[in-house]
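Question: what's this shape?

___
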Amino acid sequence: MLLLDDYIKYLQYEKRCSKHTYVAYKNDLDQFIQFMNDSIGDFDIKKVSSKDIRRWIMSMMDHGMNARSVARKISTLKSFYKYLMREGEIEQNPAQLVNSPKQAKKLPTYVREENLNQLLDLGLFSADFEGCRDKLIIALLYGTGVRLSELKNITESSIDIASFTVKVIGKRQKERIIPFPKEIKVFLEDYLARRAEIGGNTNFLFLTSKGEQVYDKLIYRVVKKHLSMVTTVRKKSPHVLRHSFATHLLNNGADLNAVKELLGHANLSATQIYTHTTFEQLKKVYNQAHPRS
């Protein structure tokens, strides 16, 4: 469908969305188109009504899809039809009149400070190339709160050891500079010495043992393996370390707006979810300490 192809190119080249994002949008729209074809046969994407979209929502929920996933798909349709309005293809956005199902608030999973200190301080990493690399991966994810995609694309020249900062390219190609803990300088120097032995023809900081840029699954495996040594939390992913970074900063008195900038969030609302986590911690302290609790 030409309009859909144009929209995906718009996301890819004008909005500069990540591949993960525009592929997810395309999948959502393909599913909607398939539903409409199955329901009524050939149809005009420009003549879809709010009623059609609500029927799709009911179908997804009848098949057991959770409210969060349904809401994301509605958001995709709203964005797509907003694009068609901007291009003059339609006069009204049919998805704008559709409400998303209510979602239960899901607090971010994080690892306790003492567990991460144990991981980084007790010699749980080997001294070879992979051990030094893996330790630096964990330390940077937790020490800076960067996303997996940002970590993977860090280059040697992005690191300023003298000022203890790293430059990353975030969503929509937005650049930000993040400070990192001084101990990471030692981890970095150990890793770079081992990295020089590996070689490789790339400027990316993190390499495989074959001298190539690391890939997503490798980073996931590294994080899961090492978090399993110190915590029993069910989810063990790079994003859990990002959650831990934000939660621990707020628990220790960091300003919410400062945490927003460090995380690279576009809106404060995205950062505020961590205040729920810190409030849970406050309630726990209160219940343990107050004589009448």
The mean pLDDT is 91. The radius of gyration is 23 Å.
